[in-house]
Design brief:
Glucose Oxidase, domain 1; 779 residues; 3 domains; seven-stranded parallel β-sheet; alpha/beta; binds 2-acetamido-2-deoxy-beta-D-glucopyranose; seven-stranded mixed β-sheet; 23% helix; Alpha-Beta Plaits; Rossmann fold
Length: 779
């Protein structure tokens, strides 16, 4: 008796101990965590000949133990990375107390805790869908070989995919200094003239999550997840004829820039992606000589100077690297963006004109439309009707039973039936797995109010059709009221020419930019729903562990998919215009973007069914063919971006974080943040009603014919009068710069932001900047 009690107590003690121990990694001031330390190397004391010596002296000075106790070996285990290409600093393991002490040391400009980033495809909640190609294929063919290298920071690569076939490629560009790191499952021969580099970064991951279990995970650039293979192939996959997912989306798969080279930086692992690893990859990529970086990841951000990725991206931009990042899948909630720094291109997601229709036929005779990517042996007989069951209590609001969560379905109730499951909480493909395991023969996945009518097709393990909220309600009401409700599912393969398209995806994160309203974000939208691209050989298309299927291509959705479209198009622009700065490339993409769908109506927001605005679609949908010849560009140099930061109320120390390679100082050239030469215009009228007029300036560079004549066209606004001076720009040379001034005068203060556009036209080019005007209401 006593023995049992003791055992029980011991057990209780152990579980409490383990729980506390786990939590303590965050809260115990004595435990070490990873910090990213940003330093100002210009304040390196003369006593040190090398900054590494200075770093170790800094660390010794804050160590809780006396300096004598730190031997060489221990020190190495404390410093995980030193950074020098995109910024100066290191990743170190410190206690909170040490971190605080270090922050106050001379020359230390920031000590930021490690941040965990997420891939922007909801991995198991896979948004599934369509593919890239269309518009660019004609002209990308002509640029077959070029020297642009795109760094892809992701889960690695599956090098055997035919998308990375290098047949016909010329030698690796001479400027490339990267490496092909060998590790488990990744050998030297896995790099070729297409995959020119492969590295992996895991010190931050191992410090946070423990040593990598090499049985489960390749400690190399090999991709067991699939996400990195998919994004890399979307950027620069070689053409593959007859690509498809179980017969769906059949056609030629190719990246946006099939001639570009891929450099793989594996920074995401089964346990997540950690900022110290991401920064080490950005640093290495800059050093290796990438021209474009594609980062389909995001983490929480509260300011430009506390966000390590933003700081590293600034350094990369200074070295001429174009960086595109996913905007996030936090939509349709407003202010849900990540990666909002002006020197980053922030990409939202939209649909394409392809769909995978399916339907639900009810015993009542009604047939409702949905989507599906199901293909398999467990087909339902088209001649039969199957019993239908909805285990929820209420057709208009989901409850635990209706969500088909693990362990909620009773085989007695669902066996042999088609089960209706509400979307939400658990991954969509997992609901299918739960239904299948409980003996269900099919699934109808119903949207709820949270998703409305936006449909994403998934590669379910059993016959399944996804339906919108309206259709779902009809089906659920029938299933709850009918005496013996029955139904069947049908699948119709791939359908092209869907109208309207593109449509802004409901999940695509929305503006405004919470750090500065004056920098309009997102910048653009690009295809991010139902994208077909190469996949790993290690994981099935649903990403479920029980999925034994293996496919060469998979269909995914997310801003993770739209970001590499922009990275690939940026690589094409870089190949065509090697002299263009990252800001010039972004300007070309933004000012040529379109805001109308294939019905010639304004782009629709899938979450409302109504027109979308600049906080949803940014400057609009990318238009690669026009971006090659934009006519004019809004260029921005590193010092201009720094001058923008000078308008953001940062302290001298916070500013130094961005000035590490030069002695940048504020030149005070901008009248305010709206004055940055951004290709979009966002003006904010302060609470103070006496400020009724705001002036901003822009400078355009002529990249069209030497002799060009542009005139301005501006939308009408209810709240302001807009005057542009001069209203005609006459260029006589290529690369000539001309400036103009925009004066906005409030007529009637509006409660909601007003949007429109400012367009320069020369009869051939149409250089469009979105305009947003916000009046802050007096508190
Ligand atoms: C690569 O492409 C070439 C030309 O299309 C083809 O002959 C070759 O078999 C491909 N190699 C692989 C490994 O798929
Ligand atoms: C069903 O849910 C809706 C919305 O939450 C609610 O208004 C309604 O009263 C519920 N009906 C029942 C029968 O519970
Ligand atoms: C920074 O300033 C110092 C002294 O003014 C000068 O010697 C150095 O060359 C400058 N560095 C850069 C990168 O401009």
């Amino acid at each position: 008796m006593e023995g049992i009690t003791v055992k029980w107590l011991l057990c209780l003690y152990l579980s409490i101990y383990l729980t506390l121990n786990f939590v303590s990694s965050t809260y115990n001031p004595g435990s070490k965590k990873t910090y990213i330390v940003h330093v100002d190397v210009s304040s390196i004391p003369p006593a040190f000949t090398h900054h590494i010596d200075w770093y170790s002296s800094l660390l010794k000075s804050v160590a809780a133990v006396s300096p004598q106790e730190i031997d060489e070996e221990e020190e190495q285990s404390v410093v995980m990375y030193t950074y020098q290409s995109s910024f100066h600093g290191m990743a170190v393991r410190l206690t909170q107390e040490e971190a605080e002490k270090l922050e106050s040391q001379n020359g230390v400009v920031g000590v930021l805790p490690e941040v965990k980033y997420k891939l922007h495809t909801t991995r198991s909640p896979l948004f599934l869908g369509l593919e890239p190609q269309d518009t660019t294929s004609v002209w990308s063919e002509k640029l077959a070989d070029h020297d642009v290298v795109v760094g892809v920071l992701d889960t690695g690569i599956w090098p055997e995919s035919p998308s990375f076939n290098d047949t016909g490629f010329t030698a690796v560009p001479a400027h490339w200094k990267g490496a092909c790191e060998v590790g488990r499952g990744f050998q030297k021969h896995h790099c070729n003239k297409k995959i020119v580099g492969a590295r992996s970064f895991y010190r931050g991951y191992e410090a946070a999550a423990g040593r990598i279990n090499e049985e489960r995970e390749h400690k190399s650039a090999r991709d067991e997840d699939g996400h990195g293979t998919h994004t890399a192939a979307t950027v620069a996959g070689s053409p593959v004829h007859g690509a498809n997912l179980l017969g769906y989306a059949y056609g030629t798969a190719r990246g946006m820039s099939p001639g570009a080279r891929i450099a793989v930086y594996k920074v995401c692992w089964k346990g997540g992606c950690f900022s110290s690893d991401i920064l080490a990859a950005v640093d290495a990529a800059v050093e290796d000589g990438v021209n474009v970086m594609s980062i389909s990841l995001g983490g929480g951000v509260s300011s430009y100077h506390r966000d390590s990725l933003s700081i590293a991206a600034f350094g990369a931009m200074e070295k001429g690297v174009f960086i595109s990042c996913s905007a996030g899948n936090g939509g349709p909630d407003p202010v849900s963006l990540t990666n909002v720094s002006p020197w980053i291109t922030t990409v939202g997601a939209s649909t394409m004109d392809r769909d995978f229709p399916g339907s639900v036929k009810l015993g009542s005779g009604v047939t409702l439309k949905g989507v599906s990517l199901y293909k398999g042996r467990r087909n339902l007989s088209p001649k039969l009707m199957y019993p239908l069951v909805y285990t929820g209590a209420n057709s208009s609001s989901p409850d635990p039973g209706s969500l088909c969560l693990e362990g909620t379905l009773d085989p007695h109730t669902v066996s042999g039936k088609i089960v209706i499951c509400d979307r939400g909480i658990s991954p969509r493909v997992q609901k299918g797995e739960v239904v299948k395991q409980a003996g269900g023969v099919g699934m109808i996945l119903s949207n709820t109010a949270a998703n409305g009518e936006e449909l994403v097709a998934d590669c379910h393990l059993l016959p399944a059709v996804a339906v919108g909220e309206k259709e779902g309600k009809t089906i659920k009401q029938y299933a709850m009221r009918g005496r013996h409700p029955t139904g069947n599912l049908a699948f119709y393969g791939t359908k092209l020419g869907i109208r309207p398209s593109p449509v802004v995806a409901a999940f695509s994160s929305r503006g405004p930019n919470f750090i500065s309203l004056e920098i309009m974000k997102p910048d653009l939208v690009a295809p991010g729903v139902n994208i077909l691209a190469a996949w790993t050989g290690d994981t099935g298309p649903s990403s479920l562990e029980t999925d034994q299927r293996r496919v060469g291509f998979n269909i995914l959705s997310g801003t993770s998919m739209s970001c590499p479209h922009v990275s690939g198009v940026a690589a094409l622009l870089k190949a065509r215009h090697p002299e263009w700065s990252p800001a010039a490339i972004k300007s070309a993409l933004m000012t040529t973007a379109y805001i109308h769908d294939n019905n010639h109506k304004p782009l629709i927001d899938s979450s409302t069914g109504g027109p979308s605005g600049p906080y949803d679609h940014g400057a609009g949908h990318i238009n690669p063919v026009r971006a090659v010849d934009p006519g004019l560009i809004y260029d921005i140099g590193a010092q201009n971006y720094f001058d923008f930061l000078c308008t953001q109320g940062l302290t001298q120390t916070q500013l130094v974080v961005f000035a590490k390679f030069s002695n940048r100082t504020c030149r005070h050239t901008l009248s305010g943040p709206s004055d940055l030469n951004y290709p979009a215009i966002s003006v904010v009228f302060p609470e103070d009603k006496r400020v009724s007029a705001v002036k901003i300036h822009r400078t355009v560079t002529n990249v069209g014919p030497p002799s060009s004549n542009y005139h301005v066209v501006i939308s009408q606004f209810k709240g302001v009068d807009v005057k542009v001076e001069p209203s005609v720009l006459t260029f006589s040379k290529t690369y000539q710069k001309l400036s103009y001034e925009v004066t906005l005068t409030t007529k009637v203060r509006q409660t909601a932001p007003e949007s429109g556009a400012l367009i320069w036209k020369d009869g051939v080019h149409r250089v469009r900047s979105p305009v947003v005007i916000t009046w802050l209401s007096p508190i």
